[in-house]
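User: What would this chain look like folded?
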Amino acid sequence: MVARSRDVDIRRICLRELDVLEVFDHTPAMIRIIVGGPGMGACITQGVEQLPMASTGFDDDVRIILPDPATGKQHLPSIKENGKLDWDPISLGLSRTYTIRAIDPDASRMTLDFVRHEGGLAAEWAATAKPGDKIWVAGPPAHASLPIHTDWLLLAGDETALPAIERCLEELPEGHPVIVCLEVAEREHVPAELNTKADAQIYTAIRSQGQSLPTLVHSLQFPEGEGFVWAGGEAMKLKPMRRLFNERRIDRKNQDITGYWRADTGVSRVAQAKKAREEKARAQVQQQRPAAGDPRMAALYALEKATSIAPAMVVRTALELDLCGLIYQGMDTAEAMAQHLAEEGRPVAVHNLDRILRALVPLQVVTWDQESKTWQLGILGTDFADPGSMVAHHMESTEAMAEFALFNLPQAVAGDTSQEIPTLGDSWMKLLEGDSYHSDAVADLEEALAHDAMRGAAAFPQAVDLAPYLQGENPSLKVIGAGAKEWVRHLERHYPGVQLSGSLWPEEEGADVIIAVDPWALQDQAGVVDTLSKLQCQHLFVLTPAQCAGQAGETAAEVIAEDLRRMCTTGGYVPTQEEALKEVHAAGWELMGQPIPCGWVGVLVPLKRRA
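Assistant: Here's the prediction, encoded as structure tokens.
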């Protein structure tokens, strides 16, 4: 996973009810709704205090949670004791993500823009919204900095990206070079005014005239120097643009590309959702059949499905070959796909390709059209075809890479972590030897085993004010653990004048304050106690995992998987809360206050030396 060059601050996601204040047309294709009221400030929801609404990034977004259109009932996520939202399938299904077009905290007003289109849950709500209506909003989850750290900026997108592009143009400093590429259905759908002080070149592609965003961007000559590209819109139209940016040597950390929506692939989203529900119901019936009143048979059937690695390997193969992308481009037979792959230097047998495609059918990735004798994208097909989708990101992520270490689980149970991790080519301990300590493989594995903890760097400044602990001349702050360098990079913005340093393991030299980032990720219990006991500081903050392990039968599946990945690589583990506190105490530390939620990525435990 490539880190973006924009600085990001993570904040706790808050839930609030807002009033609809104004509704009017921004363009013939866009409805503007201004919401606000008392809920914009600090408020109480479900008995939990919510932070005031804030937005500092031009592409910040919120989830609006809409009433059920069939019943009118409002389904909200519940708020846990630590303040985090617990989304259930119903509340998540009734929510939609929208960019914050503008915000005025002093006036308690926030602007949201909605593209007019048929069949959309949010679009239909917006079309009938009127002053006095209520709407529930969650977020924003994070704020990213304005991308003015490079020589020039490219903003590209369709109507769904327009709110972010307009806001970015308004916030750019005077004279900053920016190229704007917009795709709209009709020329009159471009806002009458695009206000900016930047040095802007604005180009438009009109769909009704056969023009498209990818063609427009491809036709442009990019300026000299380092550039940053931001693009949003229909996911599959962004795919060739990703390729173009790579070909033109735009550093991947300077590419911020988001698929806001996906065009239907011959079947409407409503029909797809209905089909998915029907197939899920049939699958549930099938799963219940083996039971026939016998719980043991039901358990055996579930075990058989759970122990098959075939679906996982088929999915990885489909993504590696980009089969869904080929179908989207019109190569809808195994013969056409095989010919294209051969031209790319990746020959495959047509018969074998058909077998992989058949295996994707029960996973709802592809379907077979008997009449035309062609392969079509299934409900999840566009997710596989879009390199920016959650599916693609997960399969390319370091967490997925670490999954292959689970083949070493029998040896790991015996305490043997010397086995080779297939995707890294060596064991964790071997990678730490000599110069390989600084290798990309070590950095990847760090992220794979402590990805949430590493993201805690962006949430820490909002969770804890370290100023009271960093007094006097030359105060010092040190970070140890996975992603320490990333933490230092984030903290530098918030603590100027403080001596900052970071390392994977403790060093002899101490500091006024030390932050230990998820020490359980990279070592066993004895190692954690040893590491914490060596720290030389007055105040210590330990970041525990976002979800600690629970008692037997109470641990979430994703926590179990994370725990096993750690066992098979570093010998680390996901502790229970009791284990974490016990090991902290054994290392000579005691609580300095109540644990503090760190955004949505973990919990900070403030500690001081035990007397």
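The first strand starts at residue 8 and ends at 10. If you want, I can go into more detail on any region.
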